[in-house]
Design brief:
The complex is a heterodimer of chains A (about 300) and B (about 525). Chain A has about 300 residues and is an alpha/beta fold. Chain A contains 14 helices and 9 strands. In chain A, the strands form 3 sheets. Chain A has a 5-stranded parallel β-sheet with strand order 2-5-8-1-9, with helices on both faces. A two-stranded antiparallel ribbon of chain A has the order 3-4. In chain A, strands 6-7 form a two-stranded antiparallel sheet. In chain A, a hairpin with a 3-residue loop joins β6 and β7. Chain B has 3 domains: about 120 residues, no CATH class; about 140 residues, no CATH class; about 200 residues, Rossmann fold (3-Layer(aba) Sandwich). The chains are: A alpha/beta (about 300), B alpha/beta (about 525). The interface between A and B is medium-sized, with 31 and 33 residues.
Chain lengths: ~300, ~525
């Protein structure tokens, strides 16, 4: 697993690899939790690449409902079908529409418009009905209302969807499911119970260095070391938003492009806003850097 | 069997530390164990983490307990792990067969024992002696010797430090392995067979011959007589020996249990706590730091909860007027219904906090949490006192750093005359200066403190006046309930006036209390960090 993920450009440690392997073997959904920017979504993408399965993504947001997550009837198409049926049923010699009188015709139309042809599949249903195994990513579950979580329960534990008009659709091939959460609120016990849990935290400087090196093979070892330790110390601070892995990567790329050799260089300090996205954070760190430099000079 | 007991014991331990583990999760673990390479301790750990732990706040406690439970396996290494697996019950039968194929573990058996012995401080010769005593005692039917042996073996455990104690069943299986009870059984079988022979043959093991030397002639004669009764006699003896052996294990088990419970009592070992259950008044510097780290996510969670409830109205009223106006555009057909806007009133909060030394850290946490979610209330007014009361509403507005909170709490100390808390005086000052402007019938007043007023007059009449002008009056106290009303604590004097007195020893309790302020009744379940 680890090697496979590495091949598609994701550096997994043993913890991540074991958990993902278990999730796949036990065919259980896996809940990824941790601060923003620690590679949760990236992991799902990498697994989909490594397995060679397509990724279906459901982005959660406040107010997400069944119609957007599971399925929806295609009303416009249904209306059209009814109209066509009506026109066909019109008796040629004028007079009243036959549709109202002929009961069997009615039933036929009703049945036909509630068939799978008129179903708009949304991500969850799509993942279930797909012939080949897919990777389903339910991103930022913590954003939806707690009541809406129940929506996922049937899909996640039994891999099936019940549609009143059609019956129950069961998965042909069970998808690999990833749920991500930024820990902004507690998820319900019911949801947690159905998932394996993987906590992704900020990487150790060593692992972060390896990640940077993978993306920027030419970077100077000394600089990597400086960057990763600097970022690690930033994360220790009480900041509005600690720098994420991708931001660190941007920062490293910028430093390489500016051909800076130390993070204390003038050029390097101008791009520090790649790491910190709040003004208060920037001010705080700038003051600290100044102080540090002065201390060095003395 | 034994190894699986270890897992269930481990889960029990997790539960003792307030980490919820459901049966579903245990089953999941059992399934997962079949899929991983059990020889790798790390893999085992990650599998357990993925299946049992469902919150980041619990990871630390899990790591602690894991290290405690499974470090034995770590030190012993591959061989004994394989051996432990061999002992497992049918749930792991697939492993048993797979490992049986791999003969390697048998070579490692002895080394594995060595490791156990080191931890328990038993030498090889001691073990051999114990085994001999056991055999002798069983053969001679000496129950007293058996009891003594069990006691002395269990006593070896007394050296184990309380934090390293594993489980009773673990030690029992460890001893039976070290003593080689299976081997004892086999020897007994041989003994019966050889006693059955009319003239004593010397083909029994050396051990047996030396054993028979130590038994009295009379006893040997007795045994031989029974054994020579043929099959019936042999069966009788076998049952006899077996019951003796069972007695020994039972005794050993109870001895182990009593020793371990004694050790645990001595060490006053408490299950490790999760951050949410650290106590404000007893937390050390390190724990306070950890709690501080939880404040920000906690306030986020609380804000999200309060927000959810505040705008979710059950019924929406149709605004007939504007619906009708709009329907004119559609020839009087009310196509779109317009609703009256719901103006959910949020509670106004007034916090009056005792910030004297004894409860300062509690006040800081509470004030910080409440002001951090001030957006979810219509208005938050904060007051702090030791004896002189100060209005710190302005200073505590907005999202403050913990350090900044520290600064303005220092103000109260500076303003203090007596230097220790005086509730009566503070209440007097509050009613005189602030009450009229601050309190309204929509205000919820929260009094924070331990109600230890250093024997100054408590003035509950003033508190009653405050209660009269506000909607609710709550008193939250960081002291454990059993200390209330002891010494200079006057909880009941105030409690009689308040709507509710709430014990808030931990972050979890504090968060739960704030959660109830919005008026909804726990539809989200308790907060557990």
């Amino acid at each position: 697993m680890k090697d496979k993920l590495h091949q598609v450009g994701y550096l997994a440690d043993d913890y991540i690899a074991t958990s993902v392997m278990l999730a796949i073997k036990l065919s259980k959904p896996i809940l990824l939790e941790g601060p923003a920017g620690t590679g949760k979504t990236e992991l799902a993408k990498a697994v989909s690449k490594a397995l060679g399965n397509p990724l279906i993504r459901l982005q959660c947001y406040e107010g997400l409902d069944e119609a957007k997550a599971l399925y929806e009837w295609d009303y416009a198409k249904q209306l059209l079908a009814i109209q066509i049926a009506q026109r066909n049923a019109l008796p040629t010699d004028g007079g009243q529409s036959a549709l109202g009188d002929d009961n069997s015709q009615n039933v036929k139309v009703m049945k036909s418009i509630f068939s799978e042809d008129f179903l708009l599949t949304r991500p969850l249903l799509q993942a279930i009905t797909s012939r080949n195994q897919v990777v389903l990513l339910i991103d930022e579950v913590d954003r939806i209302d707690i009541e809406m979580e129940a929506l996922f329960l049937e899909v996640l534990s039994d891999f099936q969807v019940s549609i009143p008009e059609l019956g129950t659709l069961t998965a042909v091939s069970q998808p690999v499911v990833f749920l991500t959460s930024n820990d902004t609120r507690d998820l319900s016990e019911a949801l947690k119970r159905r998932c394996l849990y993987l906590h992704l935290d900020y990487p150790t400087p060593e692992r972060e260095a390896a990640i940077i090196r993978m993306h920027l093979p030419d970077i100077d070892d000394y600089l990597i070391n400086e960057i990763t330790h600097f970022v690690a110390s930033l994360r220790e601070l009480d900041l509005e938003k600690p720098p994420s892995i991708s931001e660190t990567l941007d920062y490293a790329t910028a430093l390489v492009m500016l051909s800076a050799s130390h993070i204390t260089d003038e050029e390097a300090r101008t791009v520090i806003n790649l790491l910190l996205k709040y003004k208060s954070d920037l001010d705080k760190v700038k003051i600290m850097l100044e102080k540090g430099l002065e201390a060095k000079k003395e | 069997m034994a190894a699986f007991d270890m897992f269930t014991d481990f889960v029990a331990e997790l539960k003792r530390s307030d980490i919820p583990v459901s049966v579903v999760e245990e089953i999941e673990l059992a399934k997962a164990l079949e899929m991983i390479d059990l020889s790798s301790l790390l893999e085992l750990k990650y599998a357990m983490m993925a299946t049992l732990i469902k919150s980041s706040a619990h990871i630390e406690v899990f790591e602690l307990l894991f290290a405690k439970y499974f470090s034995v396996w770590q030190s012993v290494g591959h061989e004994s792990l394989a051996e432990a697996v061999l002992l497992q019950d049918s749930m792991f039968s697939s492993y048993r067969s797979r490992l049986a194929e791999n003969q390697g573990f048998q070579n490692g058996y002895y080394d594995a024992n060595l490791n156990h012995r080191d931890r328990l401080d038993i030498s090889h010769s001691e073990l051999e002696a114990a085994k001999r005593i056991l055999l002798e005692a069983i053969l001679s039917g000496d129950e007293r010797a058996i009891a003594l042996l069990a006691k002395s073996l269990a006593a070896k455990l007394s050296n184990v430090a309380s934090e390293k104690i594993i489980s009773n069943s673990y030690y029992l299986s460890l001893f039976s392995r070290l003593l080689g009870l299976d081997e004892v059984k086999r020897l007994l079988g041989i003994a019966i067979a050889s006693l059955g022979q009319p003239q004593r043959p010397d083909k029994g093991s050396d051990e047996l011959t030396s054993l028979s030397d130590s038994l009295s002639e009379k006893r040997i004669k007795e045994l031989a007589e029974i054994a020579q009764l043929g099959e019936v006699g042999a069966g009788l003896l076998a049952r006899d020996f077996e019951s003796m052996l069972a007695k020994f294990t039972a005794l050993l088990s109870s001895e182990i249990a009593s020793i371990i419970s004694a050790i645990k009592k001595d060490g006053a070992e408490l299950p490790p706590k999760t951050v949410g259950n650290f106590e404000f008044l007893r937390a050390d510097e390190n724990e306070l730091n950890l709690m501080r780290k939880e404040l920000k996510p906690l306030s986020g969670i609380l804000a999200a909860r309060l927000k959810k409830t505040s705008y979710r109205g059950k019924y929406k009223k149709v605004n007939f007027h504007s619906t009708f106006r709009k329907s004119l555009a559609t020839q009087g057909v009310p196509f779109n219904l317009l609703y009256k806007r719901v103006n959910a009133s949020k509670p106004e909060i007034t916090v009056i906090a005792d910030v004297s030394g004894s409860v300062a850290s509690f006040a800081r946490f509470s004030l910080h949490l409440i002001t951090a979610i001030a957006d979810e209330f219509d208005k938050v007014n904060s007051f702090i006192f030791i004896d002189e009361i100060l209005d710190v509403t302005k200073q505590s507005k907005g999202r403050k750093d913990y350090a900044e909170m520290e600064d303005f709490i220092g103000l109260a100390a500076a303003a203090s005359v007596k230097g220790h808390s005086d509730y009566g005086y503070a209440l007097q000052a509050f009613t005189d200066r602030y009450m009229k402007n601050v309190l309204s019938p929509r205000t919820t007043v929260i009094l924070l403190g331990d109600a230890r007023s250093n024997y100054h007059p408590p003035r509950p009449d003033l508190l009653a006046a405050i209660k009269k002008r506000s909607k609710n009056l709550y008193f939250i106290n960081p002291e454990p309930r059993r200390y209330w009303n002891t010494g200079d604590s006057i909880v009941d004097v105030y409690g009689a006036v308040c709507d509710k007195v709430v014990e808030c020893r931990t972050l979890n309790q504090l968060a739960d209390f704030i959660d109830t302020l919005s008026g909804h009744t726990g539809s989200f379940g308790a907060i557990s960090l």
